[in-house]
Amino acid sequence: VGLIAFLLAVLIGLFTIWFKIRNKKTGFYLINANAWSVYAILIMLSLFNWDVTIAKYNLSGKVQQPVDLGFLLEMNPQVLPIIAQSNLNLNVEIKAPYSYKIIHANAEFERQKIKFLKEESEKTWLSFNWYSRRAYRYFTKP
User: Fold this and answer.
1) One digit per residue, pLDDT tens: the chain, 142 residues?
2) Which member of 47, 83, 85, 101 has the lowest number of beta carbons within 10 Å of its beta carbon?
3) Are 74 and 132 in contact (CB under 8 A)?
4) 102: part of which helix (H) or strand (E)?
């Protein structure tokens, strides 16, 4: 994702350099146009929840390698419903997130789920997030 954003910024930069030379624009124009283009790229990148997108892709079956549960459990808690909906075997041992200990994947999943539900229930409307609310509803629906 970062590589694509960088390449897009480079292509826009090359276009603005060509446009500057062709139309005899100033250096300020070049800096201003490139700064606005990078700003627009960053705004477009922030419109997507990349953890959810990556988790859905990794669990879609299109990846030929085995799923790395440790990596998925290190992601945002918003991917927990995706893990729960998948047919993954959580009865395996994995490396604990941010340490070298070996833990049970199901225990880590449950720990993160309980922590997420507690934190989400304490939030107010000021910290509303659509993906978090959707994940919270998944685990609390009757």
Assistant:
1) 899 999 999 999 999 999 999 999 999 999 999 999 999 999 999 998 899 999 998 888 787 788 888 888 888 999 999 998 887 878 888 877 667 778 888 888 899 999 999 999 998 889 888 888 999 999 998 7
2) 47
3) no
4) strand 102-104
CA dist 65 to 34, 58, 60, 61, 114, Å?
39, 9, 12, 9, 29
Cα distance between the two ends of the chain: 37
The residues with which 94 forms a beta bridge, in sequence order, are: 103
Residue whose tokens read 């959707």: 134
Cut 0.90: pTM above it: no
Separation of alpha carbons 45 and 50, rounded Å = 9
Strands 102-104 and 93-95: antiparallel
Q: What is the dihedral of CA 31, 35, 41, 47, to 10 degrees?
A: -170
Dihedral through CA 41, CA 44, CA 50, CA 54, nearest 10? -80
Max CA distance (Å), the chain: 66
